[in-house]
Amino acid sequence: MSYGSLPLLKSLNPAAVAAGADIPDAVAIDGQTLSRSDLIGAATSVAERIAQAQRVAVLAKPTVTTVLGMLGALIAGVTVVPVPPDSGPAELEHILRDSGAQAWLGEGPEGTALPVVPVRTHARSWHTYSEPGPDTTAFILYTSGTTGAPKGVLLSRAAIAAGLDALAAAWAWTADDVLVHGLPLFHVHGLILGMLGPLRVGSPLVHTGKPTPAAYAAVKGTMYFGVPTVWSRVVEDPSAARELANARLLVSGSAPLPVPVFEKLRELTGHEPIERYGMSETMITISTRADGERRPGWVGLPVEGVQTRLRDEAGNPVPHDGESIGALQVRGPMLFDGYLNRPEATAECWSEDGWFRTGDVAAIDAEGFHRIVGRESVDLIKSGGFRVGAGEIETSLLGHAAVAEVAVVGVPDDDLGQRIVAFVVPRDGSGEDLERELIDHVAQQLSIHKRPREVRLVGSLPRNAMGKVQKKLLT
Predict the structure, then answer these.
(1) What is the DSSP string of 58-98?
(2) Where are the domains of the chain?
(3) N or C, which end of the chain is more exposed by having fewer CB within 10 Å?
């Protein structure tokens, strides 16, 4: 199957990137800075110690050893299983058992039964390894497990290469850029885009440890990655936000960016943020472009090589009118190779004619711009015969001065089928009768049937490590 002219076979190995003069500040992380030659020499030393392995686990802390361990595995063609550092015992046991990881690379958690292969940051080797085949599995990324035990997503070298090249084209990302972020190194956003992306392009990376406004403001980068929670905190610190004015791109992902945050970023930094859409199984398939329109609440156009479509519950096409919503399906060269040890789950997520069912609901306008409504399972609310997207209601509520955070869900209702309920984190100083005021606010901005039937004020919303609200925990 052909997806266009993307150079799928370009090497992922750091030795093949940015050939020529050394890059003295290729990666800065955990208080240390490594040149490109440092990375190549130390990672190749790692490769020599694990070359006979099939799969290794990496406790993905934001450290030099994490970076060198993963790069060493890429050089050797050994599959990496990134493990969240805060994994609980049950999750940790499941990931190790399911993945078949043979050892920890760099360090292991206390009490681990697996052997630990050390990563020596000062060791160097200049041995040359042949490029592994493009179909070789580079990473097994585990999903968040919101619908059962976490599933291992198989990402090949070719898929990662295609995904990064498509983003480099969409974002005009070159070796002249300096990427700054403080995101976790065990998901697509922080690991694939945020670590492998700059290594593939040849642009320096500064990892700030944590994605705080002060840390971002202290680095003079050209590109900044953040989840919506990060950008919400940045706009609440105007002095830090203004320090980002000299950047080239501010990129938001992993969850929808609230429209008020988009507008505040534009006001404080002069930048309209890039928004994009993807998931572990697909990497990034849709994005606004560096040279194109950026519309609040919309994630843009399919990246190079990607096709999308919308289907209703009967499998029929949904019109691209910007309003009608349907199940989003995609296909392209950056999609995964299936779920490890889960053939039934793998088969279920593909249509008979070869499209991946994302599980998300979206609208597409006549120009091909995409707006993500949310997860089909929790964000598509069927209330009183209407199909309502939770995201639209959340955007309306976030426009109210008293609302700091919000999550909208549908709860079972004998009369309506589902009742729209908004969980709201209020700002300090909010007045009395806020619940009624917020219900009326939505009714005035949107259709009357989209108003919440109930508003519950809470101190915080449950979120996972990537900042996504875990709606299934809201009852």
Answers:
(1) EE--SSHHHHHHHHHHHHHTPEEEEE-TT--HHHHHHHHHH
(2) 14-210, 278-375, 380-473
(3) N
Q: What is the three-class DSSP state of 307? A: strand
Distance CA 373, CA 323 (A): 10
Distances 212 to 227, 257, 261 between C-alpha atoms, Å: 11, 17, 16
Q: Which CATH superfamily is domain 14-210 in?
A: ANL, N-terminal domain (3.40.50.12780)
Query: Please, which pLDDT band fits residue 41 given cuts at 50, 70 and 90?
Result: very high
Q: Average pLDDT in the 11-27 region?
A: 68
Class of CATH domain 278-375 = mainly beta
Q: Which ranges constitute the DSSP H helices of 221-323?
A: 228-235, 238-242, 259-269
H or E element, residue 137? strand 137-142
- Close Cβ partners of 473 (under 8 Å, ≥ 6 residues apart): 462
The model's pLDDT over 105-132, given as tens digits with 9 standing for 90+, comes to: 999 998 899 999 999 999 999 888 888 8
pLDDT of residue 150: 86
Beta-bridge partner residues of 407: 423
Q: Which residues pair with residue 207 across a beta bridge?
A: 181
